[in-house]
Design brief:
The complex is a heterodimer of chains A (78) and B (187). By secondary structure, chain A is mainly α. Helices cover 83% and strands 6% of the residues of chain A. Chain A contains two helices and two strands; from the N terminus they run H-E-E-H. Chain A has a two-stranded antiparallel ribbon. In chain A, a hairpin with a 2-residue loop joins strand 1 and strand 2 (44-45). Chain B has a two-stranded antiparallel ribbon with strand order 1-2. In chain B, helix 1 (6-40) runs antiparallel to helix 2 (44-82), helix 2 runs antiparallel to helix 4 (129-172) and helix 3 packs antiparallel against helix 4. Chain B is mainly α. Chain B is built from five helices and two strands, in the order βααβααα. Chain B starts with a strand and ends with a helix. The chains are: A mainly alpha (78), B mainly alpha (187). Chain A binds chain B through residues 1, 3, 6-7, 9-10, 13-14, 16-17, 20-21, 23-24, 27-28, 30-31, 34-35, 37-43, 46-47, 50-51, 54, 57-58, 61, 64-65, 68-69, 72-73, and chain B through 84-91, 94-95, 97-98, 101-102, 104-105, 108-109, 111-112, 115-116, 118-122, 124-125, 127, 130-131, 134, 137-138, 141, 144-145, 148, 151-152, 155-156.
């Protein structure tokens, strides 16, 4: 497989990872909603801030993949 | 849904303690007063009353002990939930849904880790090292989320254990329904 073929494959794999990360971040937000309905301490869902921060970290990772390697692959190989 | 306000519960417990002390004192006074009366009134009628009084006394003391046990249960609830916070709302029926969501997210994160480990040949890409950095970031996210999952599960376990202890303690109480019904009808 030539470099372009490898680039296409890597781009597709990273795109799938990015989509999965998007879904994970959404599920973390849904988890916080469920905790709001089922477990609150002092008017806040338990571990609300920590889950929120992780959800942001997941989205940051997704953005880094899009704007880093995927963008590089697009401009140099695809 | 369990709904506990620890500081307000403590206020009630404090009032309840005063009432329990008053009940103990009243019972002691009634019992002491009867024996004092017996010293100064001796005939067949007081002897018959004395036999009934002993039965009544056992009943008073039993009720008093149950009321004191109730107070211990309130204190137990306040102290155990107080370790979580001042206001606690928990729906143990929702535990299964939360566990499912937590495990599902872990499974999704592991799938992405598998994808990172199976990207194929990336050596052609000049800055391929950054992909390993992404993977390290994901590893940190998985570790942090696994830790949160364990702590959430442990909080649910903690509440479950409080509730089962309270159920056991309540089962042992023999407060007579007639007494409870009387108080409820006065509300």
């Amino acid at each position: 497989m030539d470099d372009r073929g490898k680039a296409v494959q890597l781009y597709e794999n990273l795109n799938s990872i990015a989509n999965n990360l998007n879904s994970i971040s959404t599920n973390m937000d849904y988890l916080n909603d469920s905790l709001k309905e089922n477990f609150m301490i002092d008017d806040k869902p338990i571990y609300n801030d920590e889950i929120d921060n992780l959800s942001y970290d997941v989205m940051d990772l997704k953005s880094a993949i899009y704007n880093g390697v995927m963008s590089g692959l697009k401009s140099n190989y695809l | 849904m369990i709904n506990i306000n620890v500081s307000k519960l403590n206020d009630v417990i404090s009032d309840y303690s005063v009432l329990v002390d008053r009940i103990k004192k009243n019972n002691d006074n009634i019992i002491g007063n009867f024996y004092l009366m017996k010293k100064n009134w001796n005939d067949n009628r007081i002897n018959a009353m004395s036999s009934n009084f002993n039965k009544e006394k056992v009943k008073y003391v039993g009720l008093q002990e149950d009321i004191v046990s109730q107070l211990y249960i309130y204190r137990f609830i306040s102290s155990k939930y107080g370790e979580l916070g001042n206001k606690v709302k928990c729906n143990l029926d929702g535990k299964g849904l939360i566990y499912y969501k937590l495990d599902n997210i872990i499974s999704q994160l592991n799938t992405v880790m598998w994808q990172f480990n199976n990207l194929g040949d990336i050596s052609f890409y000049p800055n391929s090292a950054i992909i390993f950095e992404y993977r390290d970031d994901l590893k940190n996210i998985i570790d942090s989320f696994s830790n949160i999952r364990d702590r959430i599960k442990s909080k649910f376990d903690y509440v479950s254990s409080i509730e089962s202890t309270v159920s056991e303690k309540l089962r042992d109480l023999k407060i007579e329904n007639i007494v409870l019904n009387k108080y409820e009808s006065e509300e």
